[in-house]
Amino acid sequence: MITKIKLMLRKIFLRNSTKEFYKKLRCLKIYLMSKLKDETYVKFNVRLNTGIKLNLNNPKMHIEKINWLKLNYRNPLQTEYTDKYKMRKHLINKGYSNILPSLIGVYKSFDEINFDQLPNKVFLKTNHTSGINQAIISGKTNMSKVKEKFEKALVKNYYDISREWNYKNIEPRIIVEPFLDMDKYVDYKFFVFNGKVEFFAIIKGINDDNGNQSLDSQFNLYDVNLNPLQVGVKRKSFDDKHFNFSNNIDEMIVISEDLANPFPFCRVDFLVCNQEYFFGEMTFHPNGGEMVLHPMYNEYYYGDKIKLENISDGFIKRK
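Now predict its structure.
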């Protein structure tokens, strides 16, 4: 019942006109829950947002294992790969510099950025959070609002919001990259289980005109043979009758499996336009660990593919 009420309120308020009010309510909830231990916090949030009561003592479902990993898996490489700035060095060392967006600059504070010396259009994002992005267009963008947005983000630890350990020790930075026309790009997200891509998502309309995550994005899932996956995640889908898949899917799968090989599970994202593609980011707990694969038998099917028993004891959090 509580979950249905939460979803109803989210549907009502998570619109452009009332989005800021929804964010304030969310911040209030996070503050009130700030003293909870990680496991209690995670269990409550998952129950509130999905209706699922997690069994973390004997996890079987996909969502249970993802949250078990969130609370117990401690591979230091996760922090490096989550940091959108430090990840660039790993990609270069692996020979993937060709799929990196150009780097215009990286800054510790918003005031360090001299926009007069930058191109008329640039894209800003933080290295230590999820969803803090902004397209900057000279003479059109409200810079005071952008400054407020990024200054708030720089003093926040995303771990406090999601309880994802891999975000906890990232040193905050603002990354400036070239502006990309997001009307021309779609997002490919590859879900890698024990070093093997099992399925991938294609998302259209990723960002709005300001570069922020769009509330109207459309999300389809496919297996590696490009067949629609008989799995739903309660997201809007798009009609793919005339959709042309990238010719680089096989390359992206190889890269995803290479990057994800050290981990029991992760998601590797790319921005794709025609025959061009760029690395986006790596995510270890999609939707903060609250993505549910419907119908529910898929939760058990894909949960079985995450082999927790194969994790080295050295990467398990000590009780």
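The chain has eleven helices and nine strands.
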